[in-house]
Write a structure and sequence with these properties.
The complex is a heterodimer of chains A (320) and B (257). By secondary structure, chain A is of the alpha/beta class. Chain A is built from 12 helices and 14 strands. Chain B has one domain. Classes of the chains: A alpha/beta (320), B mainly alpha (257). The structure holds adenosine-5'-triphosphate and magnesium ion.
């Protein structure tokens, strides 16, 4: 968090974008620090791509302000901002009749960069595509095209790298390759702003995540978000359902409430104030009740649970 | 702050030749592998060479010098149709196609300016058009020199006439290219753009036709005026078209289908 305050590279202040009567995103504010990996999550149509396009000077926000790589987001500064960033767009958008290298050469020229050949070589190595350099892009699979799109964003050594769903359509090994690449870029001080629907990926890679659903629902470190949103808990499984679970669990020290797990016959969730105090008490009580205990463990909430909780709240709110 | 200084430098900046060159190079590489464009470049010269050659070889030798001049003049105007039609076709689709393929958005994430992109695309359309038009002119003149009756050859192979022909190729192509690019910037559909592009090449075609049928007499003064008008238009058109290049609309506008 301190990094964010010391050296912000992306400051977004009450940004809103509407298309006619449709609001793409509204009143979005956040700050990203230099060298941070920032995950931007949210359901389809949440406004992620539109936010990336706005910060990348491709479209003009309806209201609000932002600073990108130290430069105010204004039409007159667009060229200077674009020199310092790179965006991997949702669709890779490659010239199918040109080879991989020719596609990258075009972008070296558009960026007016020196040492083009070397940059292209390094970019292709970074995404593991050196052996396909001469192939035309039409002949590449979806995932390989995605990787060319990623290589293209590395050419100009951006300060901020915006990646719109960089791993969508990638096989697990290739996705892992992208994760390694992101980690490597972070180590070199590149700020990475990426959107994804893979929550485990966001959890593993991101210093912080934001969850957007037209408005910003939450922002923070994945483990902080878990703690904010969920009580601490224990999960208990027994060989057979307890005849009277209420008598076993209610009133135990540290146990606040209990709940049967909807999915399994003999599993129970216990809300506890401190798992270290409650767990031994629960085991003793179960033994006392002559239950065959299979496991007692701390409930682990994933970022996915956080996400589903927040997004489902929105779905329910919209039904009301 | 160095960032702010750089901002000022760019604000006062001009066209970057490296970026323009990158656009030209990519476009030409792409055309050379594009069957539609290669096909058009093959068919057009066949159609537009056969007619003038027949026209000039069929000219009776008994014509007076002025009648012969008129005949040669109208024939050679016909040769100027290719540098209008070909670049109009190429440029009318040049931006709308990129929108459809999704290649425009990544390009617009780079520091390239609209003017640089437009000038690059215009030059890339001009190069094949001019090359083809000059090749056709060369073939035509050679055929006349080798095989035509002496009288016809004398009337055709006149210095000023050939010079005018050489000059009008890029001037007319320039008109067609800018008109085509204007269409391409506005159109939301490749096929509509193609049709409008053909329409956009009509004005110079109409003038050409009027001269060919002697409705307007192709005098030297008229030719010079026409040339100067085209030159001014060609040189400044990007200033008119660049403001039409609305990045946001080009990226986000949905096709109304
Ligand atoms: N050009 C446009 N015209 C009108 N509405 C648009 C336009 N572009 C986006 N929208 C709307 O804005 C909202 C946000 O879209 P956006 O593409 O930013 O979502 P997203 O979070 O990237 O979704 P996904 O996960 O599906 O990629 C959606 O409701 C979308 O329909
Ligand atoms: Mg999106």
């Amino acid at each position: 968090m301190t990094r964010v305050q010391e050296d912000p590279v992306l400051v977004v202040d009450k940004l809103t974008k509407t298309f006619g009567s449709r609001t793409a995103y509204s009143d979005v504010s956040f700050t990203v620090g230099r060298g941070e990996v920032f995950g931007f999550l949210g359901p389809n149509g949440a406004g992620k791509t539109t936010t990336v396009r706005s910060l990348g000077t491709l479209i003009t926000p309806t209201s609000g302000r932002a600073t990108v790589a130290g430069i105010p987001l204004e039409a007159a500064n667009a060229v200077e901002i674009r020199k310092r960033i790179a965006i991997m767009t949702e669709a890779p958008g490659l010239y199918g009749r040109l080879s991989v290298t020719e596609n990258l050469q075009y972008f070296v020229g558009l960026h007016h960069l020196s040492n083009g050949a070397e940059r292209i070589k390094n970019a292709l190595e970074a995404v593991n595509l050196s052996d396909r350099a001469r192939d035309t892009c039409n002949s590449l699979s979806k995932g390989l095209r995605q990787r060319v799109g990623l290589a293209r964003t590395l050419l100009n050594d951006p300060e901020i790298l915006f990646l719109d769903e960089p791993t969508s359509g990638l096989d697990p090994v290739a996705a892992r390759g992208v994760h390694d690449l992101i980690s490597g870029l972070r180590d070199r001080g590149v700020t990475i702003f990426f959107t994804t629907h893979r929550l485990a990926e966001a959890e593993a890679l991101c210093d912080r995540v934001a969850i957007l659903n037209t408005t910003l629902r939450t922002i923070g470190n994945p483990s902080e978000l878990r703690e904010q949103l969920f009580n601490k808990g224990l999960t208990v499984t027994t060989a057979a359902p307890l005849p009277d679970p209420d008598r076993v669990f209610t009133g135990l020290p540290g146990v606040e409430s209990w709940d049967a797990d909807g999915t399994a016959a003999a599993a129970y969730h216990l809300a506890v104030s401190d798992p270290a105090v409650a767990a031994p008490e629960v085991v003793r009580a179960l033994v006392h009740a002559k239950a065959d205990v299979l496991s007692v463990g701390e409930s682990r909430h994933s970022l996915e649970d956080v996400y589903l909780e927040l997004v489902n709240e929105d779905v329910e709110a919209s039904r009301r | 702050m160095s960032a702010l200084k750089a901002v000022q430098a760019v604000r006062s900046g001009r066209i970057d030749a490296t970026r323009v060159r990158a656009v030209v190079r990519k476009e030409i590489t792409d055309y050379r592998r594009n069957r539609f464009i290669l096909g058009t470049m093959t068919v057009l010269p066949i159609v537009f060479l056969v007619n003038p050659i027949i026209n000039i070889f069929a000219a009776p030798t008994s014509l007076t010098r002025s009648a012969l001049d008129a005949r040669v003049g109208s024939t050679m105007l016909f040769l100027l149709l290719v540098p209008v039609i070909l670049p109009a076709t190429i440029s009318a689709t040049s931006i709308v196609t990129e929108r459809e393929q999704g290649t425009l958005e990544p390009v617009l994430t780079t520091p390239v300016r609209s003017e640089e992109l437009l000038i690059g695309k215009a030059l890339a359309a001009l190069i094949p058009a001019a090359a083809l038009a000059y090749a056709m002119l060369g073939v035509f003149l050679l055929a006349v020199k080798l095989f035509a009756h002496q009288q016809i050859a004398d009337a055709t192979l006149e210095g000023p006439r050939i010079l005018a022909q050489v000059l009008f190729v890029p001037l007319l192509a320039g008109w067609a290219i800018w008109a085509g690019i204007a269409v391409s910037v506005r159109a939301d559909d490749v096929r509509v753009a193609q049709q409008l592009g053909t329409l956009a090449s009509l004005p110079p075609l109409a003038i050409t036709a009027l001269m060919a049928f002697n409705v307007i007499t192709p005098t030297f003064r008229l030719a010079v005026l026409f040339a100067v008008g085209l030159l001014l238009l060609d040189a400044g058109a990007y200033r008119l078209i660049a403001p039409m290049f609305d990045r946001e609309r080009l990226i986000t506008a949905r096709r109304s289908k």
